[in-house]
Amino acid sequence: xxxxxxxxxxxxxxxxxxxxxxxxxxxxxxxxxxxxxxxxxxxxxxxxxxxxxxxxxxxxxxxxxxxxxxxxxxxxxxxxxxxxxxxxxxxxxxxxxxxxxxxxxxxxxxxxxxxxxxxxxxxxxxxxxxxxxxxxxxxxxxxxxxxxxxxxxxxxxxxxxxxxxxxxxxxxxxxxxxxxxxxxxxxxxxxxxxxx
Length: 196
Hints:
mainly alpha; 66% helix
């Protein structure tokens, strides 16, 4: 198609040059347009350029691929079924009949078993998220109803202060026997929570 459009342009140029040689340029232009004026029409340059590029790149890709596919089909041909040896598990791509589709299945396309495992793992994770959200909603409802728990955004204190308090209690217990009335006893301390 590119060749044809180029030839058409060349024939037009040759016609114009022949007419110009015979008569002066003004008369030839009048004769070429028949009425003595140029009609207004939209440009077709972009469309013709697009057509030329489309034909060029299609042929640039289609011709080599067609030659390659024909060569592979003649040289290797379709695969044939054979007995599977004992203890051998065929790969997914080995089930393809055509060598080209076998190449794509082996090197480019994802494995269907792998996709299935990814999908199952995704659904499992999403179902666990749903369960956790239900539990979280139940916990919030219980906290709201009973009003005797820490609030949801409670910032826990550092255990350092609890350890210091425990060391002070042990020191008072071991060194000041008579001061038991002023020191919290062990039972009360364990009820408060003994950090270990």
